[in-house]
Amino acid sequence: MLKTLYTRLTLGLFLLLLAVGLLYTFFSLYSLREYNASVNQELHRDLAKDLVADRNLVSEGELDRGALKELFALYMTINPSIEIYLLDLEGTILSYSADPAKIKRKQVSLEPIRRLMNDMDSYPVLGDDPRSHDRQKVFSVTPVPSMDNPEGYLYVVLRGEEYDAAETMARGGHLVELSAWALIVSLAVVMIAGLAVFRLLTRRLTLLTRLVEDFEHSDMSHRALDITWRDRRPVVRDEIDYLGATFDDMASRIASQIELLTEKDAQRRQLVAQVSHDLRTPLASMQGYIESLKLRRDRLTAEEQDRFLDIALKEGRRLSRLVDELFELAALEAREKQPVP
Known about the structure:
Elements: H1 5-43, H2 47-54, E1 58-59, E2 62-63, H3 65-78, E3 83-88, E4 93-96, H4 111-118, E5 126-128, E6 136-145, E7 150-157, H5 161-216, H6 229-232, H7 239-295, H8 302-333
Antiparallel strand pairs: 1-2, 3-4, 3-7, 5-6, 6-7
Helix pairs in contact: 1-5, 5-7, 7-8
């Protein structure tokens, strides 16, 4: 299944899109959370100050503890998404509207409080959540009883425990379902588009592979090059076209070399046949005279015996010369010697 380039590209695209989708989902959720926090803090940046003014928490320059308790009870009922805390100047929690059993901190850090009061337009600024040892949330804060005579801070956590519970429920329900479907549809559309693009890109590679396979299974002669890459792509545009043109040249050279080898093999066979005939003539002549000399020695005169020996010797020299020429030809073909003009 993974042998073709198209399949590997498809698998690579799927894994890449899956990784991109997961990263996009992670960063989208993180960005959405930061965006919601910024919007929430921007909308309620003066909430703590407005609570002090609207509920008359300051009477004759001092904090009215009774009115503060009424405020705690009221907002626990009408707006459970916020939590109100009274802090001293060191950040120690003096009183609060939350369930006492769920308070984990006795003191919150003053650094985020001072940073927000110094620049009310810097969002989001996260402060310590008294219901957790390490969690931080957006908040609104104001000095009490006044900015000129601070004795503590009214610290309002804007996204309390009730808000977190509602957000978790929403995230686990319709929002997650919509996000999942949006991600799946997006990945499917991009995957289909990617497959179409890969098909267009690999179509020429498939054609080139088919040409190579056809040439491989042929007799590798010029007759096997009826259809070449240049017939389909006469102009070289990119690396694939260059590879196809290079294959055409290579296949043409291979076909020429095979035809040349075939021709040389035919010449070699013809040469062997001719050499065999040329060697057989002096050998037969020499053998005949020697046998005649052996069989008719008593009936031949000394002059005839000398003539037979001279002819046999002459044919032997001729045979030796032909053998020497064969060795020299073999040396020339092996390029062990260079021809002398």
